[in-house]
Write the structure tokens for this entry.
Amino acid sequence: MKKTIINPTLRDRLYTLTASALVYLALSTGSATIAHAEYLDPLDQPAVVMASAQHSLLLDVARAGNRLVAVGERGHIIYSDDQGASWTQAQVAVRSQLNAVHFWDDKRGWAVGEDAVILHTNDGGQSWSKQFDARDTEMKGPLLDLFFISANEGFAIGVFNKLYRTTDGGQSWENWQAHADNLDEWHLFAMASPVAGVIYVASEAGLLFRSLDGGDSFAPLQTDHDGSFHGVLVRRGDDGQDQILLSGVGGKLFVSRDSGDSWHELDSHTEAGLSGGAWLADGSALIVGADGIMLNVSADLTSVQKYQRDNGLPLSNMTTVGQDQWVLVGLGGIQTLNAAEVKQNDE
């Protein structure tokens, strides 16, 4: 396998979560006061139940059957059974920031976050127990995303090539770093899979890692970009090739229609950092990011329409809840809107 050789530039800088998350963290900690008290590890404290949890910093949202589940700061996990109209806070075993959530079915789900914490639920997100954290390992830092390819087998990724694998539903997690051709230890930000056996991982330095063997190995693919990609959407086309949409720092959008073998940059009409997104019912995609930016990428992946929320709050991710209806998460918590509202903010 031909290796991608890149001069590392990461050793002396702090890791990032997403472009938007940097803004979130600065705002949420800027007014903190110094207190002289015994330190209590967030991993050993349950999340505090708060009436305002749905307005806190939320970083990801996913579907668990007909239920919506969102995760974020201070171990906050909230769920909705009425398409986002009202939310209930879950019982969570930790107070650590949670960066991503994924469900295999309507009951079994996992969430990952700071200190490589991995949580699990068997009741659709109402209660969460801790399966793993990295306090006793050499692999420090957060996990940023995860993906399960079956009810038992899944992967979790994070900073500095942090990569774990489970084959027993998360009862045990093994270090899987050696299976990624990532000698420079670039951060791994987001995962997606179009069909069984194929997995893509968005990374830094214009890299995307691809597995064609169900996660046994991950090989680097180089785009024409040299920055970070914080989001990846992928689907299998009618021609059997994967259509990939990468989004990241500086408003960068890159598209591949041949499973990552070649790339084309789209004009996003913005330099705001981009994070997550989702495919929409009409085949287009909606990508969200800093400054309340929303980008609608056409179904043929050739053009971009830019919108912006009036409140300008950074957005981290979104999911669909019906025809032309969406739930978005970010700074300020939950936002719900529909296509008509989006078009009112057309720039």
User: Anything to note?
Assistant: The chain has two domains: 44-283, 284-347. The first strand starts at residue 58 and ends at 64. Residues 44-283 form a domain with the Methylamine Dehydrogenase; Chain H fold (CATH 2.130.10.10).
